[in-house]
Design the sequence.
């Protein structure tokens, strides 16, 4: 009793430690309180009651909303990043895919030098074939020229005939 | 200059995420609410104040990693925010600092059904600093040194204010007790 009086006086002077205050709270909470301490029981009861008060609105919603905004930004940046990476990859890949190949007699030839040499050889042979193929055309040209000469002979003969006719009429 | 930018950038991305924020900041939200309610003396306004603070802390979470005592830091921020709110609405929100406990009239007595309600009213009628300190100590059980940090006072000033607050409440409780006894004897 004496000790509790002293402790209460110390408490109201603001000199008690948290441990001593816990003892006081325990004393008043247990209910077996001295009559002269009874007026203070409600005070410690109020402190205990107030400690049970909690925030009402769902605060987590605020953070969730903020998080959603952040997630949206992250998603936007991620997708943009992925798209950019894909474009870059395709751009880098393109020259590598330029390694063309040729199929010669059913075989895939990837060496450009070999393919070029083979193509040149084939083109030369085509050239030779074309040269031979054009020989009859040259002969035709000669025949054409000769025919033109024959046409001229007939024209000269026509002119001579006309001259002969004119001479006969005059005589 | 670029180092500073880089450091800020890294801090931003290294800063606490929602789980960490929940664990370190939101766990104090009930205490923050009670503190705000004690200062503003209005549950709805306290609720709004806590929401505002949480959003502000979330936006500035990049600097929260450096905070050593999150409870003290958030409670100090909460008190400052509430005091700003009071300053903005001084005329209607804040009672004069010198206001003393006045014995309730019969209407108020009917409203304050029991001694507990009257004690709550006694505490609410204390000056802001005293009611904040008494509740931080007796409800939240916070050390004097931490209360000093939250209220920007010295530890001695906190003890003095705590003592004054408790003494006032004691006097008023005894007056109230005497009045009740007199009523019973009549």
Sequence:
């Amino acid at each position: 009793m004496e000790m509790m009086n002293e402790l209460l006086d110390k408490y109201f002077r603001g000199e008690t430690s948290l441990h001593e205050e816990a003892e006081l709270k325990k004393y008043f909470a247990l209910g077996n309180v001295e009559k002269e301490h009874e007026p203070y029981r409600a005070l410690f009861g109020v402190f205990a009651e107030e400690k049970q008060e909690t925030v009402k609105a769902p605060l987590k919603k605020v953070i969730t909303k903020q998080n959603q905004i952040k997630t949206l930004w992250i998603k936007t940046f991620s997708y943009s990043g992925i798209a950019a990476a894909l474009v870059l990859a395709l751009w880098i890949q393109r020259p590598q895919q330029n390694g063309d190949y040729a199929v010669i007699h059913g075989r895939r030839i990837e060496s450009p030098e070999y393919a070029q040499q083979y193509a040149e050889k084939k083109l030369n042979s085509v050239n030779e074939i074309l040269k031979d193929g054009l020989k009859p055309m040259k002969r035709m040209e000669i025949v054409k020229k000769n025919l033109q000469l024959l046409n001229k002979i007939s024209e000269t003969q026509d002119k001579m005939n006309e001259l002969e006719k004119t001479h006969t009429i005059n005589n | 200059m670029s180092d500073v930018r880089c450091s800020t950038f890294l801090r931003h991305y290294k800063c606490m995420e929602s789980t960490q924020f929940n664990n370190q900041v939101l766990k104090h939200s009930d205490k923050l609410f009670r503190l705000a309610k004690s200062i503003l003396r209005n549950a709805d306004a306290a609720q709004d104040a806590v929401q505002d603070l949480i959003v502000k802390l979330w936006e500035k979470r990049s600097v929260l990693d450096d905070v050593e005592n999150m409870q003290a830091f958030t409670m100090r921020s909460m008190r400052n925010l509430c005091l700003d709110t009071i300053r903005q609405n001084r005329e209607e929100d804040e009672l004069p600092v010198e206001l003393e406990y006045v014995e309730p009239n019969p209407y108020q007595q009917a409203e304050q059904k029991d001694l507990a309600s009257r004690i709550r009213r006694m505490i609410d009628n204390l000056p802001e600093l005293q009611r904040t300190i008494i509740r931080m100590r007796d409800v939240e059980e916070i050390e004097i040194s931490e209360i000093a940090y939250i209220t920007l006072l010295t530890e001695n000033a906190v003890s003095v204010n705590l003592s004054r607050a408790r003494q006032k409440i004691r006097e008023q409780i005894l007056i109230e007790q005497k009045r009740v006894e007199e009523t019973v004897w009549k």
About this structure: The two ends of chain A are 186 Å apart (CA to CA). The first strand of chain A starts at residue 102 and ends at 104. The interface with chain B takes residues 11-15, 18, 21-22, 39-40, 42-43, 45-47, 49-51, 53-57, 59-60, 62-64, 66-67 of chain A (CB under 8 Å).
